[in-house]
Write a structure and sequence with these properties.
22 strands; 19% strand; binds uridine 5'-triphosphate; Spore Coat Polysaccharide Biosynthesis Protein SpsA, Chain A; eleven-stranded mixed β-sheet; alpha+beta
Length: 474
């Protein structure tokens, strides 16, 4: 049952401690650890151990970093207005023909939020407390109705939350979506590595494994067969967004259309950063190629540089909203392999010690390695960026309170729906300081966008909320 070649491999790379408890295990436990060990490419991992754990990787700052150009959210000339009109028409056509699928990355561990369960099952909306998954599902249902073509939704899970995520959808009847339009696929894992280069064990029969980062999406699409399925379904473009950003437009026709007419392989939305050190990736041109430089890798002098008018020179932050072409993913993952740069993070990872006793570390004891989706940008033959208005597109739920929290996200959801209603001519009570004096939530099933909201208010169904009231509109 014990595979001699596995012992040899582990010995070769100094990881034989992983079989320390093997002889005392029953068959099921032995099978479990062996199957985990077989999934790791030990040779590749050894290279990573040496370059990211035993030695610190050098951050090379390229000499030629410039701000990247982008399309403004509102057209700034007549020519551009016409160009956007054509792009919008194209985006609309692509949605009508079912050429676009939505893809949500939901494989993260959500450690900062500290919620026990997949983040998509976190109750979030301000009045109805809908979960993130329900909110997205309703946006997608309405998108399908609006363009007369139901939209396929691909959801990336991780090994840890895959079955819980699937069960959640089943239990909730897919929130009204057709089950055959919802596709789950699980991403790969990476072992957590102790500071001494040894892979950590979670229990005597399992390694400390965690999802390999949202960059894992591309290879997971290929290896799971989802990419082939997209092809079969006639899908050419992927609208990519994160599970913790309920504000996002799940399939924005202008963004889709610009991605298409620009012949972009991978596109991104940018938003103006709130300050030089906001924790967002920075869109930059590096040697003429579009890149995102992590906030932690951005040289301080560049981050703080300002234009003559006082605006940050590197103003473009990334909210992780992308359009990605299926052809591009196919090209990158040909042969079932994809090399993306790794990013290291030191984390506290509970594990067992050499006696098999549980250790709950008080300070970081391990390096976790992840790849990031945006590292695919420089691999694209062509790319494009469209500005997004933060208040309309981005409010992630990362923390229980404070910045990027449930509290800030709910406030922004109310603000967006109130602005939408007011734009449609509705009267909403506001406090002296200008904040809405009520909690308002629009169901995406009836008010997906400004056009829907205008029709809703015009239909007479809308009753203005009282001061201090909670109002849900569906
Ligand atoms: P974050 O980087 O914010 O990570 O993920 P997280 O796991 O949600 O939260 P923390 O850092 O542990 O608190 C951004 C998006 O990428 C997805 C997440 O689910 C989220 O939608 N993601 C992240 C994956 O799908 N897989 C990963 O391996 C990492």
């Amino acid at each position: 049952m014990m595979d001699d070649s596995m012992i040899d491999v582990l010995k070769k790379y100094g990881q034989e401690h992983l079989l320390r408890f093997f002889n005392e295990m029953n068959m099921r436990q032995k099978e479990k650890i062996l199957s985990q060990l077989r999934e790791v490419n030990w040779q590749d991992l050894d290279v990573l151990v040496h370059s990211y754990v035993l030695n610190m990787p050098e951050t090379i700052i390229p000499p030629d970093i410039r701000p990247s150009p982008y399309f403004p959210s509102e057209p700034d000339s007549d020519d551009r207005k016409e160009f956007y009109r054509v792009a919008l028409k194209r985006g609309t056509e692509l949605l009508k023909k079912g050429k676009v699928a939505a893809l949500t990355v939901a494989g993260g561990q959500g450690t900062r939020l500290g919620f026990d369960g997949p983040k998509g099952t976190f109750p979030t909306t301000p009045v109805k407390n809908k979960t993130l998954f329900q909110y997205f599902a309703e946006k997608l249902i309405r998108t399908g109705k609006k363009y007369d073509c139901p939209i396929h939704w691909f959801i990336m899970t991780s090994k840890t939350n895959d079955s819980q995520t699937r069960e959640f959808f089943q239990k909730n009847n897919f929130f009204g979506m057709q089950a055959s339009f919802v596709h789950f696929f699980a991403q790969g894992t990476m072992p957590a590595i102790g500071m001494d280069g040894k892979v950590l064990m979670e229990t005597k029969e399992s390694l400390c494994l965690s999802p390999n980062g949202h960059g894992g999406t591309l290879l997971a699409l290929k290896l799971s067969g989802s990419l082939a399925q997209m092809r079969k379904l006639g899908i050419d473009h992927i609208s990519y967004f994160q599970v913790d950003n309920p504000l996002v437009s799940v399939a924005d026709p202008l963004f889709i259309g610009l991605h298409f007419v620009e012949k972009s392989e991978m596109s991104g939305r940018m938003l103006a950063k709130t300050g030089p050190f906001e924790k967002l990736g920075n869109f930059c041109l590096v040697n003429g190629k579009l890149n995102i430089i992590e906030y932690s890798d951005m040289p301080k002098n560049l981050a703080e540089m300002r234009e003559a008018d006082g605006r940050l020179r590197f103003i473009s932050g990334s909210p992780a909203i992308h359009m990605i072409s299926v052809d591009f993913v196919e090209r990158l993952t040909e042969g079932g392999k994809l090399n993306m740069p790794w990013h290291r993070a030191e984390k506290k990872v509970p594990c067992i010690d050499e006696k098999g006793e549980t250790v709950k570390p008080e300070k970081p004891n391990a390096v976790k390695l992840e790849t990031f989706i945006f590292d695919a940008l420089p691999l694209a033959a062509k790319s494009m960026i469209l500005e997004a208005k933060r208040e309309d597109e981005f409010s992630p739920v990362k923390n229980p309170d404070g910045v990027d929290s449930l509290v800030s996200c709910r406030a922004m959801m109310v603000d967006k729906d109130v602005r939408r209603l007011e734009k449609a001519g509705a009267k909403i009570p506001r406090k002296d300081n200008g904040e809405p004096d009520c909690l308002v939530e629009l169901s995406p099933l009836v008010c997906l966008d400004d056009e829907d909201t205008a029709a809703y208010v015009a239909s007479g169904k809308f009753k203005a909320p009282e001061r201090g009231a909670k109002a849900y509109y569906d």
